[in-house]
Amino acid sequence: MQVDLLGEVRWLRRCVVVSALAFDYSNMDAIGLVTRMGPDGRPLSSGLQINSQPAPGLSVDEASKQSQARIVIQNESNNAEILLADRQGRNRIVLRVGQDDQARLEILDAAGKVVFQAP
Q1: What are the structural domain ranges in the chain?
Q2: pLDDT tens digit string along 60-84?
Q3: 92 burial level (CB within 10 Å; 0-12, 13-18, 19+)
């Protein structure tokens, strides 16, 4: 079974190779290191993800539906990012240094709308 550790199905459509190393809870990935390569062989992203812990006793399929990415540190298309998510897996804080070397901090509401940003 192939698991998208960063929870972004759109990546799987663009990727040719997904390499991952996961440290597991009993029924779900706890911490994952992942690299995604595009069809041209160039890297799309690499990063570290820490997931929420699902309830004990759930099957792997059930746990994968409940567990959410809570902390992601990644380099996505040469954008360095730290993403902090709520218990539902929605990004709430995004810290990014883009390809243009500009730093940006965004705080998002539950709907994904930016409620604060700097600069």
Answers
A1: 9-118
A2: 888 888 889 999 999 998 999 999 9
A3: middle
